[in-house]
Amino acid sequence: MTATVTTLPPVLRRARRRGAALGLLAWLTGILFFLPVAWMVLTSLHAESDAATNPPSLAAPLTLDGYREFFGAAGGASPWPSLINSTMASVFSTLLVLLLALPAAYALSIRPVRKWRDVLFFFLSTKMLPVVAGLLPVYLIAKNTGLLDNIWLLVILYTAMNLPIAVWMMQSFLAEVPVSIIEAAQMDGARLPAILARVVAPIAGPGIAATALICFIFSWNEMLFARVLTGVTAQTAPVFLTGFITSQGLFLAKVCAASIVISLPVLAAGFAAQDKLVQGLSLGAVK
Amino acid sequence: MSTSLRAAVSPPPTTPVAAQRPPAPPPQAARRDLRAWATRAPLLPALIFLIIVTQLPFVATLVISLFNWNSLYPDDRAFAGLSNYGAVLSDPELRGSVLTTALLTASVVLVSLVLGLALALLLDRKFRGRGVVRTMLIAPFLLVPVAAALLWKHVLYNPEYGLFNGLLTWLGGLLGIDGPAQPDWISEMPLIAVEASLIWQWTPFMMLILLAGLQSRPLDVIEAARIDGAGNWQVFRYLTLPHLRRYLELGALLGSIYIVQNFDAVFTITSGGLGTANLPYTIYETFYRAHEYGLASAAGVLVVIGSIILATFALRVVSSLFSQEVSR
């Protein structure tokens, strides 16, 4: 691949052919990675007898039976309580995260306290400690205070789980707000809540929204805490899914339907936050 | 961690930019104190909340790890010193899970990083439908982890009707081979089965980070190199790769943090069987099923120590990225 810049036309032709080949390669890998997801969608739309075939059946008639089964049409546990629990845990913990992280990020980026980077790193360091090592005391405390199988316990834990990421993300988003605007608002006598609501929020709004979506995703996905700390009443959607771990082939369409329905909020939130997703997941280090 | 705590709680007053602190006139000290607290106050709710919910349980874990405590025999609870740690380190099963954790993390991070780099390079070029390909690639990362694990366990790996064996049968039919091999993926290669599903989920993440890195490359330098006669490989080797180094490090470290802690895939695909139990799964089993609170806590503390070592590197990497950004 020596670049012979002087003889343009053949090089250009070769480059174009190479570009097309690489584009094709990108498409093929993209399809390869997407294939399991697509197959899951197709399987969820097949009758159970058509879903579990070898070799795979592409032409089998489509049906929504898998989804009907999942929502408890033929008896069995209804997924609604767990979906509602997941929604509650995710939404309330996300709101709590915003409530706590926004002022903190403000203190770290717009009016930085002394040694603010140390504080920021402290937040990050809590994220790097494995949750499994703190699980037992939390379990014991919950058991002794009667908080076991209570959705609010998950709200508190998910808030703590997401707070470091949220502070980091928002810190980087708020740092983009020009200090001069805030100073002008302060001169006009605006206090912190007013500044946050009227000056900071409009500018850093998209970033804050992305932060909220990412916190929502993490809370929705969480399974270990939910499995250990909830039982019947506070069971979340991922824990509901674990009920399918040992299920046999007859319920393949139902398993796929369940996985898709429970992943839908995350897929929606993820695609919505796509651009800011990397920045958030890499703790604001990558722009 | 202690220094950062001190920094957050220490009384000295603050000014917006620490480095440029002007000498303060003494009579206004009280007012200055008040202002300092006003600056610091918004930080406190989040800090206090985090310390209570994340740090205190670790202290409790540390204390429990020093006790002989099986919740099935509550009367036998007794101070045991460091014997739990001895037990953890000498238990072949627990030692095995340390090895499994290391293997799982290293292989998943490395493979997904290499694949992610290849995909990022492919997607950095303009081609028709790039947005669609990008969206298709992100999808695996956006499935709920348990759902993704179920997909691999039931829909892809199942020896009788899974997609993989179905494709083998179909290919065999095309090539005229009667009864092609139908491996039982999970029991024949349990660790690889778990790794493959995780690599599938994490490659998109690596791709996204590296793509961001590629798109932040200084194009003028590359152009200059090309004019000087540098080929594609030379540009990649001497310009792109060094520029991507920090992004590769960041991807590796963030991936490690999450995959060391992985529970969902191990729990779902193999239930920790067949030598795939990693540390989080083993700790979960030790405390949730075997009710060995002391042992589980000791193992947990050891995981924390391992993570702190990892985190020290991680913080240094993030810190270097961060200072680069500040100096910009």
Write up what this structure looks like.
The complex is a heterodimer of chains A (287) and B (328). Chain A is an all-alpha fold and 287 residues long. Chain A has 13 helices and no strands. In chain A, helix 1 (8-44) packs across helix 12 (252-272) and helix 9 crosses helix 13. The radius of gyration of chain A is 25 Å and the shape is flat. The model of chain A has no long low-confidence stretch (mean pLDDT 84). Chain B has 328 residues and is an all-alpha fold. Chain B has 15 helices and two strands. Chain B has helices at residues 2-9, 29-40, 44-64, 83-90, 92-124, 130-142, 145-156, 163-175, 185-188, 190-215, 219-227, 232-260, 264-270, 279-289, 293-327; strands at 67-68, 78-79. In chain B, helix 4 (83-90) crosses helix 15.
Number of helices of chain B: 15
Radius of gyration of chain A: 25 Å
What is the global morphology of chain A? flat
Q: Please give the alpha-carbon distance between the first and last residues of chain A.
A: 32 Å
State mean pLDDT of chain B (0 to 100 scale): 82
Secondary-structure element series of chain B: HHHEEHHHHHHHHHHHH
The poorly predicted ranges of chain B are 1-21
Helix content percent band of chain A: over 70%
What is the terminal-to-terminal distance of chain B?
Answer: 27 Å
Number of strands of chain A: 0
Overall SS class of chain A = mainly alpha
Helix and strand string of chain A, N-terminal first? HHHHHHHHHHHHH
> Which runs of chain A of at least 5 residues are low in confidence (pLDDT < 50)?
none
Radius of gyration of chain B: 26 Å
Helix content of chain B: over 70%
Helix vs. strand class of chain B: mainly alpha
Name the shape of chain B in a single word: flat
Helical run tally of chain A: 13
Instruction: Report the oligomer.
Output: heterodimer
Largest sheet of chain B: 2 strands, antiparallel
Structure characteristics:
heterodimer, A: 287 residues, mainly alpha, 13 helices, flat, B: 328 residues, two-stranded antiparallel ribbon, 15 helices, 2 strands, 73% helix, disordered N terminus
